[in-house]
Amino acid sequence: MKSAVIVFPGSNCDRDLAVGLERASGRAAEMVWHKDAALPEGLDVVAIPGGFSFGDYLRCGAIAARMPIMRAVVEFARKGGHVIGVCNGFQVLIESGLLPGALMRNAGLKFLCKNVELIAATSNSPFTSSLEVGQRLTIPIAHHDGNYIADSELLLKLQAEDRIAFRYADNPNGSVDNIAGILSQNRRVLGMMPHPERLNDPALGGNDGAKIFESLTHSLMASA
Amino acid sequence: MKARVDITLKNGVLDPQGKAIQHALGALGFDGVNDVRQGKVIELQLAGDDRAAAEAALKEMCEKLLANTVIEDYRIKVL
Question: Is residue A224's pLDDT more than 80?
């Protein structure tokens, strides 16, 4: 599995994400600067990291989504490439139009930084293929704007198309239908607020996060 | 030419910051504040003096960057 991590000014989970991808796949991820206009050749996965790209100016992820590399990422996704966006990366994917809905200020207005329990809502995606529906994972969150909003029409569509990847066991931020992560229509783009790359080593208190990177690696190897 | 863009949350989109402001106003004794919506103002200094062209450009700026039209409305004013 050949992967790349996009780096924006203010990204701060880029290296952890690269470690997560490398541990699962055995192959180092390439780090790609946001001003580049093209992705490396032959990629299987593009990962958009968490952090505070461009200082969260205007709206979280709004400026990053308009950088040159994102045109290439959108093109990559349209051609069927796999893309994972975590936290600020999820916000960037929404701002770039790869995922629907919006992420607003947490309902309680506080920045939340803690471990939460997630429930896998589908195993029908490359990112969740090794998980069972209903399986619980402990994954940290660290965000101020993670309150996922969808109008009733979009929500029904996401539910009907089985595109909700993860739900919170105990909704921390007001997200509609407890949504913590969603998939694109072709199921190859995942955006999620919790940080799997931050709980990816038993020495750090757990490695539930690794299950997502391992699912992705297994799915890509199976389809290769 | 100066222009101003007001960006507000669409009706029906819950505004937790507006609610917090409303509660704080109530705590200060300002009764009768039925609702508060928080938005943002962007002021722009534009070259040229063609108002129609400026308005068209501003509309495109709003659609492409300044507003998230999923949750926000915008109002353009060329001053």
Answer: no
Domain range for B7 is: 2-78
Count up the domains in chain B and report the number: 1
Here the tokens at position A111 are 């920045």
User: Which tokens hold the place of A162?
Assistant: 């089985």
Neighbouring residues of A17: CB distance < 8 A, sequence distance ≥ 6: A5, A29, A47, A49, A50, A86, A197
Question: What CATH number is attached to the domain comprising B17?
Answer: 3.30.1280.10
Tell me the Cα Rg of chain B.
16
Query: pLDDT tens digit string along A122-152?
Result: 999 999 999 999 999 999 999 999 999 999 9
Judge whether A154 and A177 are in contact, CB under 8 Å: no
Chain A residues touching residue B17 (CB < 8 angstroms): 105, 109
Buried b / exposed e over B47-73, threshold 16 CB at 10 Å, is eeeeeeebeebbeebbeeebbbebbbe
Is A142 strand, coil or helix? strand
Q: How far is B57 from chain A (nearest CA, A)?
A: 17
Q: What is the distance in angstroms between the Cα of B16 and the nearest Cα belonging to chain A?
A: 6
Give tens-digit pLDDT for A41-83: 999 999 999 999 999 999 999 999 999 999 999 999 999 999 9
Q: Which CATH class is domain A3-223?
A: alpha beta
For B1-24, how does the pLDDT look when each residue is reduced to its tens digit (9 = 90+)?
999 999 999 988 888 889 999 999
